[in-house]
Model the fold of this input.
Amino acid sequence: MSKTDALLTVRNLSVGFHTDRGDVTAIEDVSFEVRAGEILGIVGESGCGKSVTSRSIMRLLPKFNSFIVPQSEINFDGVDLTKVNEKTMRSIRGNRIAMIFQEPMTALNPVFTIGWQLDEALKYHTSFGKSQRRTRAVEILESVEIPNPEQRYDEFPHQLSGGMRQRVVIAMALCCDPELLIADEPTTALDVTIQAQILRLMDLLRRKTKTAVVLITHDLGVIAQICDRVIVMYAGQIVETADVYSLFKSPRHPYTKALLESIPQTGREHHQTRLPTIDGIVPSLFELPEGCRFQDRCAYKTQDCVDREPQLSSEVNGRKVRCFFPLCEP
Amino acid sequence: MWVYIIRRVLYNIPVFLAIVLLVMVLLRNQDPVPGLLGKNATQQEYDSKRHELGLDRSLLVQYGALLTEIVTFNFDREMWTQSGMTVGEQLRSAIPTSLALTLPALALTTLISICIGMLSAFARGRWLDKTLVFFAVLGMSISFLVYIIFGQYFGSYQLGRLLGRPIFAIHGYEMGWQNWAYYLLLPVLISVIVAMGYDTRFYRAVMVEETQKDYITTARAKGASDRKIMFVHMLRNAMIPIITRIMITLPFLVTGSILLETFFGIPGMGNVLLTAILNNDFPVVEVFAAIFAGMFIVSIILTDVLYALFDPRVRLQ
Amino acid sequence: MISRPISSRLRRLLNTREMRKLRRDKGALCALLVIGCYLLIALAVMSNLISRQDCTQVIGSNGMPGFFLEESRERRFENARTSMLKPVLRALGHPDPKAALADVKLGRWRVAEKSLDELQQITDDAVALRLILNESENLDEEPQFEARLVEFERKTADLIKPLSGWDNFMQNAALLLGTDAQGRSIFFRGVYSIKVAIQIGVVTAIVSVLIGAVLGAAAGYWGGWVDSLIVWLYTTFSSIPNLVLLVVIAYAFTDSDAKDTLLPVYIAFCSTFWIGTCRVIRGETLKLKEQEYIQAAQTAGFGSWRILFRHVLPNTSHLMLINFSLLLIGAIKSEVILSFLGLGVKSQPSWGVMIRDAGNNGDVMTGFFWQIGTATAFMFVLVLAFNILSDALQDAFDPKHL
Done:
C-alpha cells in the first residue's frame, strides 16, 4: 500500500434500525476516504447520522436492533470490517482504530482508577509486562499534558475535572498507537477555552504519530480550526464533500451555504442584523420526502428537487455534491 | 468515620424504642391469662397469675423493665408456653436452626439471580431475555404456599416413592451437619425458587441500568470482550445496589422463613415466633422484636459503611 | 380552568405518549381483558349470581373430582349412597314425612314429586340393592356387580325431581370442578373467592396508595420535622418482617367484635402496605420540588395544600397507579397466607381458605388436586395478569423502574 492510498475507505455504507414502527434506514449510501495523517471532519445537525456512521466503523452499534445493509463496505487497510468476526474486531478496537466520545464526565468507569483503565487497554493489545505498562501509561498521560501523571495514575475519575477527564480518554485511545482515531464530538461538552486546548492537543499528536483522524462535530468553528477535509451530512446522507478551504470559501450545497451563513459574526457591519437561521426542521426518518431531503428548507428548490432524489456527483479536485443545481461561486 | 456511625446509631434509637413499644402495645390488646390458666380458673387465680407475670404493672413500667433487660442482655425470663425454658435458651437453639435454612438460601438465590440477571440484561430485548423475564413473572404469580405444598408433595413424598427411599424429609428436624441435606435441602430449594422471580428482575434492572452507561461503550471501544464487560465492569458497579439489597435482608435471615419452618416442622425462629404469637407468649415475642429491631439498625449502618467501601465517590467524605 | 367535554379530555389522555405505548403492548391489553373478565365475575357474584349459600351447602358427596370424570365403582357407590338416598330415608322416618321431604335439598336437587308410597317403594328397592353391594369388599375388583350398581344408581336418581333450564345448568356447573371434603362445590367457592379477592385487593390498594401518597408528598414537600416524623414512622414499620406484622395485627383482633368481618384484614394490610407507596412518592416529590413550575406556584403565592394537591400529586399519579396494581397483587397473595394461618378471611370462602382446607385435609397427599388446583389456577391467572399489566405500566411511565 503506497503512502497516498487511503487508510480507511467507506463505500455505500447504509445502516438501519429495527424500531416499534418498523425498520428505518439511519444512514444511506455513505462513502468517504481517510488517509494516514489527515483529519476528516464530519459535520451536520443532531440526528443527521454522524454518530451512527462513526460507530458502525467500529461496529459498536447494538447488535439486537441495528443492521448494516449488505452492500456496504468498510475497508480498513485491506480488510472489510463489515465482514470480520467479533474476535478480530475486538483486536482492532482500541488497538488499530480507537474512539473517543462526547461526555468525559461519564465515559470513565467510576470505580476503577485512571491507571487501571489505561492498564486495561494495554493488557488487551500489548504483551508488555506490568512495570512496562505503567511506564507507558504515565508516558501517555504526560503526552496529553496532564500534570503530575504519576500521581494521577492512582486517582479516580471523579477527582478530575472535565477537561482532564477528556485528556485521559484521549490518552486511553492513543496508548496503543492506533492508526485511526475517531473522535465523536470530543469538545462539545467542554467550555471554550478547554475546547481550544483539546483541539490543539489532538492536532499536535496526529502530526507526531501520523494518526488519521475522523472528527465528528456540529460546530463549524472546530472544523475550521483543524480539519483537512470535510463531509457535510444531512438526514442520513452526505450532501457535500470538500477540502476545508474550498468548503468555507465556496460552498456548493445550499445546506452548507446556509450553515455557514448562520454562524454568528462579530464586527460592526453585523450589528443590528438578525441572525440568519434555516427555516423548517429536519424531516423525520419515517417520513422522508420522495425527492431531495433538503427540499422543504432550500431557498433554491425547483420541481425537479421534489420529483427525483439527487445523487452524489463527483467533481474535479475531489469535491462531491448531492444537488441538481449546486451553487457556483466564482 | 466513627462519628458518623455514632450519629447514625443515635438517630435510629427512636426507631428502636418505637418498635419495641409498638409490639408491646399490640400484644397487650389481648389478655393472655385466661389462655394460660384455662377458662375455669377463679378470678383470684387470674389476678395472682397476672401479678406473677408482671402484667398488672402500668405499661410504662413494663416497658422500662423490658428495655433494661434488653440493654443488659438479660434473657432469663421464662417462656410462658414452655415452663422451665428461658427465652434465652429457646433463642440459642432456634437461631442457628433458622440460619442453617436462610443463609444457604440467600447465598444460592443471590448467586443464581445475579448471573441470570446479568445474562438477561446483556441479551436485552432478545428472546433469551424475554423468556427469562416471562418465567420470572410466571413464578411470581404463584402463592408461596402452593410452592411449599407441592414441594412437599413432589419433592419429598413422590420423589421418595420413585427412588424407593426418602431423600428429603417431609417433616421434622434434627441438629447436626450430616442431617442438613435430609431436612433442609428441600426447604432451601423451595425458598430459592420462590425468591428467584423477584431477585432476577431486580438484578436485571440494575444491570440494564449499567449497560446504558457510557463507560461500557468506552470499554467496548477499547476492545473488551463481552465477558470482561459483564464480570469486571458491570458487576463492580452493580455491587452497590446489590450489597444494599442483601444488607436489607440480613435481619430477616434470623427470622427464618415462618412459613417454611411451620410446614416442615423445623424449630427455627420463625416457628417459635409464630407459636408464641398465637399462644400469647409475651416474653418471647417482646425479646424477639427487640433483637430484630437491633439487628435492623445494625444492618442499616453496615449498609452505609459498605457503600463507602464499594463506591470510591462516597469514600473521600 | 377551561372546561372541556369529557370525551375530548379522555381522548387527549389516551393519546399521550405513554398511553400510546401502552396501547401497543399486546400483552398488556390481554392482561387488561383478563382483569376485566374477573371484575365482571366479581360484580356478578356481588349481585348474587353465586350466593354465599351456594358455597356452603352440600351438593354432593365429599371429594368428588371435577369435569365429571369417570370414577371408580367404589366411588360411584359412595356417591349414589350419600346423595339423595340418605336424606330421603331420614325424612321418611320423620313424624311428618311430607314436610321433612320438602326440606330435603342437595344443591338445587329436590325430592321427586311422587306419592309417599312410591317413594317408600323406591327407597326399599334401593336399600335392598345397597345391602347386596355392601357385601362386596371392593367393587372395583368385582365386575359382576356392575349391573347392580347401575340399577342402584338409577333407583337413587329416581328420587330426584327432574330439573330444567337454569337450575339444571347451575347444578351441573356446581359439580364442574368437584366437591371438597365437606361436599361443597369447588367451582362455586372458587368463583366466589374472586369477589373476595378483588374486594380485599381493591379496597386495600386504594386506601394504602392514598395514605402513602399523601404522607409521602407531605414528607417530601415540607421536609423538616414532618419529613423526619414520617420517615421514622415508616422505618419503624418496615423493620418488622412483613408477615409478622400482619400476623400480630390480625391476631390482635381475634377477640374483638369485628372478628368475623374483613375489618382486621383491611387494617392489617393498610397498616403495612402504605410504606412502599410513601417511599416512592416522597422520592418523587423531592425531585419535583426543584422543578420550576413548583417554584413558580410558590412565588405566585399559592397555598401549600393547593400546590400539593394540584401540582405535586397529579404529577405522581403514574407512580400511584403502578403502586396500586402492585399492592393489589400483594394484597391477594398476603390474604392467601393470612387465611391459611387462620387469621384472614374467616366466614367466607376465599382462595386462602380453600388452600388451607386442601392442606389440612391432606388432599395433596391423597392425590386430590381439585381444590388446591382450582384456587391456585384462579389466583394465578389474576395475579399474572396484574403482574403483566404493572410491568407494562412501569415500562410506559417509569422506564427506569426496578
